[in-house]
Specification:
Blueprint: E1 17-21, E2 24-27, E3 32-35, H1 38-41, H2 50-60, H3 73-85, E4 90-94, H4 97-114, E5 122-126, H5 135-141, H6 144-147, E6 157-160, H7 165-171, E7 176-181, E8 184-185, E9 191-192, H8 195-208, E10 211-215, E11 239-242, E12 253-257, H9 278-291, H10 296-317, E13 322-328, E14 331-336, H11 340-349, E15 352-353, E16 355-357, E17 361-364, H12 372-393
Parallel strand pairs: 3-15, 5-6, 5-7, 7-10, 10-11
Antiparallel strand pairs: 1-2, 2-3, 4-12, 8-9, 11-12, 13-14, 14-17, 16-17
Bound molecules: pyridoxal-5'-phosphate.
């Protein structure tokens, strides 16, 4: 079999997996890989977590999908739970991150529309951002490589340099509706927005009657050791997009909002066929069961520190290969001096999987259920990989 029948949009590795067990992926030839990519922060509870399997299989035998023409108890339950544990009063379920962002953008624009200010529709975003691949979200992300050849860019996004509060202020006009930002840029290279900057954005929004939209598609759902990354800064958004880890591998996302921010999203103005179906809700509720277990998030924070400290020690040993270790919790990046592809390849040779990112970063996003022993194992593999690069290039410690 080959990829010939598939769109050539992905630069796939010649590697296929047959089975997953926790932090491990088992290839077709039986080779075991330590999975520190976790489907790009999607497999939040690892592979084949028994509680998720039971929830999904249990639901699969009863009912998969009815559409949003009817009440969906699993949606009501997950919605109520998300409202209980976050800033939000209202939730809209989607199938993906980009759709959660689309819902967020539409929510912000409708808010001003029902306030009688329909000329307020522009949204300030940041360089290096990634918000998805739909026409609106590539415009929001503003990256030329994703926009090229797809016709006129969707109107209404004003981009400023990453974390630059002064530039945000200057970009605000009477047409500005909202500010959209990732608390930690994922694809952009694990760039952490300082808490102070996030608080500054919140303040600007309050002063100018704007809505603060957070994209926590990657940084959310426990990834940083808090339920959502913005909690570290003490502020709350008006609207938040969530996806990736919330389904533990089942495709789902959500747009969360305060009652006020969501007031324009009335019957019929938005919709989805698949979003929030029974299978997704069974899985999402099961992910939350584990995430909200006593001590689970504290464990993520502790393991994140363990991994970061180990990586920092390795960085000190190989100053010619590693520029910097950055990130929060189990959302960490190795910023490389050598090409990140070289480092990632060396890791793969040692049967460890990581994900690439911007700014020449290798992302480490293990399942939140990773054990201390697996972190130790990963650190040994990273050390060996960099040692191999140092030996081959004559650089290193
Ligand atoms: C992955 C990602 C998205 C897009 O999610 P999809 O499910 O691929 O549509 C949006 N924002 C951020 C921060 C992401 O990491």
């Amino acid at each position: 079999m080959s990829n010939a029948a598939l769109y050539d949009t992905f630069a796939r590795l010649p590697l296929a997996f047959e089975k997953g067990e926790g932090t491990w992926l088992i290839a077709q030839d039986g080779t075991r890989y330590l999975d520190f990519a976790a489907g790009i922060a999607v497999n939040s509870l690892g592979h084949a977590h028994p509680h998720l399997v039971a929830a999904l299989v249990g639901q699969a035998g009863k009912l998969w999908h009815t559409s949003n023409l009817y009440e969906i108890p699993g949606q009501q339950r997950l919605g109520e739970r998300l409202v209980e544990i976050t800033f939000a009063d209202k939730v809209f379920f989607t199938n993906s991150g980009a759709e959660a962002l689309e819902a967020a953008i539409k929510t912000a624009r409708r808010y001003h529309f029902v306030n009688g200010e329909e000329s307020r529709y522009r949204i300030v975003t940041f360089e290096g951002a990634f918000h998805g691949r739909t026409l609106a979200t590539i415009a929001a992300g503003g990256q030329e490589k994703y926009l090229e050849g797809f016709g006129p860019k969707v109107e209404g996004f004003d981009q400023v340099p990453f974390g630059d509060l002064k530039a945000v202020k200057e970009a605000l006009t009477e047409e500005t509706a909202a500010i959209l930002v990732e608390p930690i840029q994922g694809e952009g290279g694990i760039r952490v927005l300082p808490g102070e900057t996030l608080r500054g954005l919140r303040q600007l929004c309050d002063e100018h009657g704007l809505l603060l939209i957070l994209d926590e598609v990657q940084s959310g759902v426990g990834r940083t050791g808090r339920l959502f990354a913005h909690e570290w800064s003490g502020i709350t958004p008006d609207i938040m997009a969530v996806a990736k880890g919330i389904g533990g591998g089942f495709p789902m996302g959500a747009c969360l909002a305060t009652e006020d921010a969501a007031k324009g999203m009335t019957a019929g103005v938005h919709g989805t066929t698949f979003g929030g179906n029974q299978l997704a809700m069974a899985t999402g509720n099961a992910v939350l069961d584990i995430l909200l277990d006593e001590g689970f998030l504290e464990g993520v924070a502790r393991k994140g520190l363990l991994l970061k400290q180990g990586l920092a020690a390795i960085a000190d040993t190989f100053p010619d290969i590693v520029e910097e270790i950055r990130g929060e919790g189990l959302m960490l990046g190795i910023r490389c001096k050598k090409p990140n592809a070289l480092v990632q390849h060396a890791l793969r040779d040692r049967k460890m999987l990581a994900a690439p990112a911007g700014e020449n970063v290798v992302r480490l996003l293990p399942p939140l259920t990773v054990s201390d022993e697996e972190i130790q194992d990963a650190l040994e593999r990273v050390h060996a990989a960099l040692e191999g690069i140092a030996a081959a290039t004559g650089d290193g410690g």
